Amino acid sequence: MKILAAAAAGLVFGIGLSVSQMIDPAKVLGFLDIAGDWDPSLAFVMGGGIAAWGLAYLAARRMGRPVLAGKFGFPTRQDLDPRLIGGSVMFGVGWGLAGFCPGPAVSALALGRWEPVIFVAAMLAGMFLHRLIPSPAPPRASAGA
C-alpha cells in the first residue's frame, strides 16, 4: 500500500510541476531574472506549495500517527551548520544556472529532451560522490541542557 501511495503522490506532484511549467528551464530562469525580463508567475506556484505544506504540517501535528507509517519523521535539529548553508547555496546556484531542480528535472525526463537527462545524470553522480564524503559527528548536547 505504501508504494501505491508514494507512486500516486509522485504522479500528482509530477503533473503539478508540468501544469505549472516548472519543468521548463526558460520559465524558471525567467522567474529568477529579477533584474531583466522577470516572470513572477512561478511565485504563485511556490506560494501554493508553501500553503499546501503548511496545512499538511498542521494536520500532521494533530494526528497521533501517520496512516501508512509507524511515526512521523519531523526534523529535530534547529541549528544552521556550514554543510546546510553550503548545500543550500549549491542548490540555488545549480537551479539558477540550469533552470532545473531535482523534482522538475525528473518530471522533465518524460519530454525526451537531452537537457534533463544530463541534469539528472549529474545529480545522480553528485549523490553517489556525496556518499564517499565522511559525515561529521552529530552535535553533542551541552552539559547545561
Q: Which secondary structure elements does this structure contain, and how are they paired or packed?
A:
Layout: H1 2-19, H2 25-32, H3 41-62, H4 82-98, H5 102-108, H6 114-131
Helix pairs in contact: 1-5, 2-4, 5-6
* Amino- and carboxy-terminal Cα gap: 42 Å
In terms of structural class, how would the helical and strand content be classed?
A: mainly alpha
What is the 3D shape?
globular
Number of helical segments? 6
Topology as H/E string? HHHHHH
Major sheet size, sense and barrel closure: none
* Overall pLDDT level: 87
Number of strands: 0
What number of structural domains do the residues give?
1
| Proportion in β-strands | under 5%
Query: How much helix is in the residues?
Result: 55-70%
- pLDDT under 50 segments (min length 5)? none
Radius of gyration: 18 Å
Provide an overview of this structure.
This protein is mostly helical and 145 residues long. The protein has one domain. The chain is 62% helix and 0% strand. The radius of gyration is 18 Å and the shape is globular. The relative contact order is 0.11.
